[in-house]
TrEMBL record, chain A:
<protein>
    <recommendedName>
        <fullName>3-isopropylmalate dehydratase large subunit</fullName>
        <ecNumber>4.2.1.33</ecNumber>
    </recommendedName>
</protein>
<keyword id="KW-0004">4Fe-4S</keyword>
<keyword id="KW-0411">Iron-sulfur</keyword>
<keyword id="KW-0028">Amino-acid biosynthesis</keyword>
<dbReference type="InterPro" id="IPR050067">
    <property type="entry name" value="IPM_dehydratase_rel_enz"/>
</dbReference>
<comment type="subunit">
    <text>Heterodimer of LeuC and LeuD.</text>
</comment>
<comment type="pathway">
    <text>Amino-acid biosynthesis; L-leucine biosynthesis; L-leucine from 3-methyl-2-oxobutanoate: step 2/4.</text>
</comment>
<keyword id="KW-0408">Iron</keyword>
<dbReference type="GO" id="GO:0051539">
    <property type="term" value="F:4 iron, 4 sulfur cluster binding"/>
</dbReference>
TrEMBL record, chain B:
<keyword id="KW-0432">Leucine biosynthesis</keyword>
<comment type="pathway">
    <text>Amino-acid biosynthesis; L-leucine biosynthesis; L-leucine from 3-methyl-2-oxobutanoate: step 2/4.</text>
</comment>
<keyword id="KW-0028">Amino-acid biosynthesis</keyword>
<dbReference type="InterPro" id="IPR050075">
    <property type="entry name" value="LeuD"/>
</dbReference>
<dbReference type="InterPro" id="IPR015928">
    <property type="entry name" value="Aconitase/3IPM_dehydase_swvl"/>
</dbReference>
<dbReference type="Pfam" id="PF00694">
    <property type="entry name" value="Aconitase_C"/>
</dbReference>
<dbReference type="GO" id="GO:0003861">
    <property type="term" value="F:3-isopropylmalate dehydratase activity"/>
</dbReference>
<dbReference type="InterPro" id="IPR000573">
    <property type="entry name" value="AconitaseA/IPMdHydase_ssu_swvl"/>
</dbReference>
<comment type="subunit">
    <text>Heterodimer of LeuC and LeuD.</text>
</comment>
Length: 471, 196
């Protein structure tokens, strides 16, 4: 019987496997950041252990950092302390740090791919659940807790039981204005925020194949929002062309050898999956979430579900979510006034996202009632945007381009959405208080977010695009 | 190094019948700035427990003196969202030894097991039975036996068995530690690095 892509990569990384025990899985690269690593380094100190493979560990500061005036010392004391701690730990244990001010600094899931560290066939972990992003290259990548960060620092290995495999196919042609973010929000709305729990999900089908690497990363990034262990997409020409020539990508003979191997990385025709789901691209509208988990999403023209449509047991939680969001049964979000727009996060802060938004907002201006933040995923994305003149377009539109970091995705720095305010956000989580205490998040694509910033209310991007075609 | 040991407990429970409780609710991001593992219990369920002036919200279960106990019982898909182990630390630091739900998110489950906090996954029906038992009598106790893998409602004697990875079970009962286990096979790791 054939093998799935996931099993091929997993098997190539098993150091040892024993009945009744999880496998010992070898990790190619371990990404670390300031928030989930300090306790792990402390653990190493207590055990008197070094970092086992410091050259396979890459650090950056992203979660806590300000996105304005990054050249100045961090104002917030605890954040500054945490970032300083990372610097100190990296120095002590011999780890390369792309800290503030470094040309490679940025959100950990943006810098790995753009530096050519993330490659097909590899295994990647990080103390951050959106590590699933790296799976877009045809790799196994998942988020881990701090005890496991310590484990990987100490051994370059992780104890893991093999998850089940799911295949999600999307076929067909997307409507104009519908993109990767809409695809993944649609899938999660269909299968719920727990629908992928226990699975490694391979995305396939001609719609997925047609996406750029950026788009594929957006999809894999949100695998965790359906509970999946990880998401992955078989590498192809698009993948290989993306990796080629990047800073840490293999060169010369090494490159040829690597590509030859990567070309063997696909699920065999007769590979068996524990679950297979199929969706039609034509069915997908621009998506928006209305609730407090990413599974609570609808097409932008649809109505918020009625409480009575849920099982009695689920109604309490459902009502709580609607109350939090200040919404009611059967409400339509279309036309609802908003206060903030956040374009950023490891889901949608890559150069392609910024280009798409810039192209759309060129010659337009944001509505007066809306504050817009555009936060690039990395220093490199920021510089590229400036080189291409996108910052000027953004400025003219009232969309200031800030400096890289996680920012309002989780509101650990000062970029917080105030209590009670509505934010259309390109990030990945709409949990209560995620963007700031009592903030209210509508997750959407960069285009929907940009269009909503222009009108000041939740907007169907397709209407805009139709009008633009007419002129 | 050894970790916290868990074998058997019998205790009243704290009921929280909400589904999809994510780790941002368990411990909001702004409290993740600490660099040690201690003290997170003070901020467990921070925004459900306290208002914006840091006053306890009387209707939240942790502020209700009627309920106490070492087991948190919660709705399905508990611990979804972020991989922050701080969520498991906060629950354990607050004084819970186990969490019972009808479904757990993967990463949370692993993090809990790595911290001597036992995630007990029961059927939807059994979960409802526990909620019913506590509604009838707020001092209702449950018994959790890890060795024999069952959970029992003491008052009614109803019980259900639960799954746990055999390796993780041995770790919790004996206080074994993953890093010690992997390092005992260091030669295999080095061999792997050479031949790959
Ligand atoms: S951008 Fe948001 S989701 Fe991504 S790594 Fe940062 S905090 Fe996590």
């Amino acid at each position: 019987m054939g093998q799935t892509l996931f099993d091929k990569i997993w098997d190539a990384h098993v150091v040892s496997s024993a009945e009744g025990f999880p496998d010992i899985l070898y990790i190619d690269t371990h990404f670390i950041h300031e928030v989930t690593s300090p306790q792990a380094f402390d653990g190493l100190r207590k055990r008197g252990l070094p970092v086992f493979r410091p050259q396979q560990t890459v650090a950056t500061a992203d979660h806590n950092v300000p996105t304005w005036d990054q050249h100045l010392p961090i104002k917030e004391e605890l954040s500054r302390y945490q970032v300083d701690m990372l610097t100190k730990n990296c120095k002590e244990f011999g780890i390369e740090l792309y800290g503030l001010g470094h040309p490679y600094q940025g959100i950990v899931h943006v810098i790995g791919p753009e530096l050519g560290i993330t490659r097909p066939g590899g295994t990647y972990v990080c103390g951050d659940s959106h590590t699933s992003t790296h799976g877009a290259f045809g790799a196994i990548a998942f988020g881990i807790g701090t005890s496991q960060v310590e484990q990987v620092l100490a051994t370059q290995c992780l104890l893991q039981s093999r998850p089940k495999r799911m295949k999600i196919e999307v076929n067909g042609k997307l409507q104009n204005g519908v993109g990767p973010k809409d695809i993944i929000l649609y899938i999660i709305a269909q299968i719920s925020a727990a629908g992928g729990t226990g699975y490694a999900v391979e995305y396939a089908g001609d719609t997925i194949r047609s996406l750029s690497m950026e788009g594929r990363m957006t999809i894999c990034n949100m695998s965790i929002e359906m509970g999946a262990r990880c998401g992955l997409i078989a590498p192809d020409e698009t993948t290989i062309n993306y990796v080629k020539g990047r800073e840490f990508a293999p060169k010369g003979e090494e490159w040829d050898k690597a590509v030859a191997y990567w070309q063997t990385l696909y699920s065999d025709e007769d590979a068996e999956f524990d679950s297979v789901l199929t969706f039609r691209a034509e069915d997908i509208e621009p998506m928006i979430t209305y609730g407090t988990n990413p599974g609570m999403g609808i097409g932008v023209t649809q109505h918020v579900p009625e409480t009575a449509s849920f099982d009695v047991k689920e109604q309490v939680s459902y009502k709580k979510a609607l109350d939090y969001m200040g919404l009611h049964d059967d409400e339509t979000l279309l036309g609802k006034p908003i206060d903030y727009v956040f374009i950023g996060s490891c889901t949608n802060s890559r150069i392609e996202d910024l280009r798409q938004v810039a192209e759309f907002v060129k010659g337009k201006h944001k509505a007066d009632n809306v504050t817009v933040w555009v936060v690039p995923g990395s220093k490199q994305v920021q510089e590229q945007a400036i080189r291409e003149g996108l910052d000027k377009i953004f400025d003219a539109a009232g969309f200031p381009l800030r400096e890289p970091g996680c920012s309002a995705c989780l509101g650990m720095n000062e970029d917080k959405i105030p209590a009670g305010k509505y934010c259309v956000s390109t990030s990945n989580r709409n949990f209560e208080g995620r963007q700031g205490p009592n903030s209210r998040t509508f997750l959407a694509s960069p285009l929907t977010a940009a269009a909503s910033a222009i009108t000041g209310k939740v907007t169907d991007i397709r209407e805009f695009l139709k009008e633009e075609e007419l002129v | 190094m050894s970790t916290k040991i868990f074998k058997h407990i019998q205790t009243p429970v704290v009921p929280l019948a909400i589904e999809n409780i994510d780790t941002d609710q368990i411990i909001p991001a702004r409290f993740l700035k600490a660099t040690t593992r201690d003290g997170f219990g003070n901020n467990l369920f921070r925004d459900w427990r306290f208002d914006e002036n840091d006053h306890p919200k009387p209707d939240f279960v942790l502020n209700n003196p009627t309920y106490s106990g070492k087991v948190l019982v919660a709705g399905k898909n508990f611990g979804c969202g972020s991989s922050r182990e701080h969520a498991a630390w906060a629950i354990a630091d607050y004084g819970f030894d186990a969490v019972v739900s009808s479904f757990f998110a993967d990463i949370f489950k692993g993090n809990a097991l790595n911290n001597g906090l036992l995630p007990v996954q029961v059927s939807d029906d059994f979960l409802q039975k526990i909620f019913d038992a506590v509604a009838a009598d707020h001092t209702a106790e449950v018994e959790i036996d890890l060795e024999n893998q069952f959970i029992k409602i003491s008052a009614t004697g109803e019980q259900e068995s639960f799954e746990v990875n055999p390796y993780k079970k041995a770790c919790m009962i004996n206080g074994y530690d993953d890093i010690d286990y992997i390092l005992s096979q260091k030669n295999k790791i080095e061999e792997f690095e050479e031949v790959r």
